[in-house]
Amino acid sequence: MIRVAVAGPRGRMGAMAVETLVTQRDMLLVGVLDRKMAEQASTIAGAVPIYTDMETLAIESKPDVLVELTTHESVYRHAQSAIKEGIRPVIGTSGLTPEEISHLEGLCRESGIGCIIAPNFSVGAALMMKFSAIASRFMPASEIIELHHDGKKDAPSGTAELTARMMADSKGPSGGKSTAGIPIHSVRLPGLLSHQEVLFGGEGQLLTLRHDSFSRQSYMSGIKLSVREVMKRNGLIYGLDKIIDDGQQPI
Ligand SMILES: NC(=O)C1=CN([C@@H]2O[C@H](COP(=O)(O)OP(=O)(O)OC[C@H]3O[C@@H](n4cnc5c(N)ncnc54)[C@H](OP(=O)(O)O)[C@@H]3O)[C@@H](O)[C@H]2O)C=CC1
Ligand SMILES: O=C(O)C1=N[C@H](C(=O)O)C[C@H](O)C1
């Protein structure tokens, strides 16, 4: 049994993750981390206790894995405390800086535990990133347009940042390692959920790679896979694409 905790259980993603994880036969939801207790309850999803600090959650519920789905303001703090408590983070929250990711990588190495940061848990988005990395070797002039619902708090999206990083890495040293070379445009509108286009311009041609999430269900398989995989791995993995082997069964 993998003992799992979820941070951000009242959120759009966290609530769906709780619903999904409680149904998994090889997982036990042992606690949730919220910043306030629910109005009149100290448990959710049956009898799962609600905690307001990581240390108490760690001591009382002893999770193996923390699924982090809060905000860019709290994810770094939660991830650091989890690793220090020997809890393996599966981070879906966007907004970690490159410096914060490097620091978490060091903490994981020191502690000898795994951590997965997946700015996008949907398999389609992971494939879009892989294909974009390949395309950028042949068509280096490119720009990213990410489009999200108007409730999204951060910009640019974590998906766009990882896509740009993978594209820059794939161009080799001359392409640079920063995302700065690849412009990212952010659109926030009601009616949208999560969408991204990567445009590659060439002489008399345009290649467009596009991914759309129409429902947050698109992320649930990736969350389940990440919880299982983080138990088998050591060190920090950045991107769902790194844990989807070529030729593997559809997730
Ligand atoms: N990796 C992926 O595939 C996906 C990632 N995301 C990312 O996941 C994150 C959450 O998105 P979404 O669910 O839409 O956002 P929501 O705003 O709906 O949910 C965030 C939740 O986190 C809670 N929260 C904020 N701070 C804390 C804290 N310190 N401790 C505990 N809980 C806290 C909020 O509580 P309160 O209501 O009190 O503010 C809220 O309930 C975002 O960063 C988003 O970009 C989203 C979709 C897919
Ligand atoms: O806030 C969202 O909704 C999403 N956030 C993630 C991101 O920043 O890339 C993943 C997905 O795009 C949905």
TrEMBL record:
Keywords: Amino-acid biosynthesis, Cytoplasm, Diaminopimelate biosynthesis, Lysine biosynthesis, NAD, NADP, Oxidoreductase. PROSITE patterns: DAPB (PS01298). Residues 2-121 form the Dihydrodipicolinate reductase N-terminal domain. Pathway: Amino-acid biosynthesis; L-lysine biosynthesis via DAP pathway; (S)-tetrahydrodipicolinate from L-aspartate: step 4/4. (S)-2,3,4,5-tetrahydrodipicolinate binds at H149, G158, T159. Its EC number is 1.17.1.8. It is found in: Cytoplasm. GO terms for cellular component: cytosol. NAD(+) binds at G8, P9, R10, G11, R12, M13, D34, G92, T93, S94, A118, P119, N120, F121. GO terms for molecular function: 4-hydroxy-tetrahydrodipicolinate reductase; NAD binding; NADP binding; oxidoreductase activity, acting on CH or CH2 groups, NAD or NADP as acceptor. It comes from the Bacteria. GO terms for biological process: diaminopimelate biosynthetic process; lysine biosynthetic process via diaminopimelate. The active site is at H148, K152. It holds the Pfam family DapB_N. CDD domains: DHDPR_N. NADP(+) binds at R35. Residues 124-243 form the Dihydrodipicolinate reductase C-terminal domain. It catalyses: (S)-2,3,4,5-tetrahydrodipicolinate + NAD(+) + H2O = (2S,4S)-4-hydroxy-2,3,4,5-tetrahydrodipicolinate + NADH + H(+); (S)-2,3,4,5-tetrahydrodipicolinate + NADP(+) + H2O = (2S,4S)-4-hydroxy-2,3,4,5-tetrahydrodipicolinate + NADPH + H(+). It is an enzyme of class 1 (oxidoreductase). Belongs to the DapB family. NCBIfam families: dapB. PANTHER family: 4-HYDROXY-TETRAHYDRODIPICOLINATE REDUCTASE 1, CHLOROPLASTIC-RELATED (PTHR20836:SF0), DIHYDRODIPICOLINATE REDUCTASE (PTHR20836). Catalyzes the conversion of 4-hydroxy-tetrahydrodipicolinate (HTPA) to tetrahydrodipicolinate. Homotetramer. This is 4-hydroxy-tetrahydrodipicolinate reductase. The lineage of its organism: Bacteria, Bacillati, Bacillota, Bacilli, Bacillales. The gene is dapB.
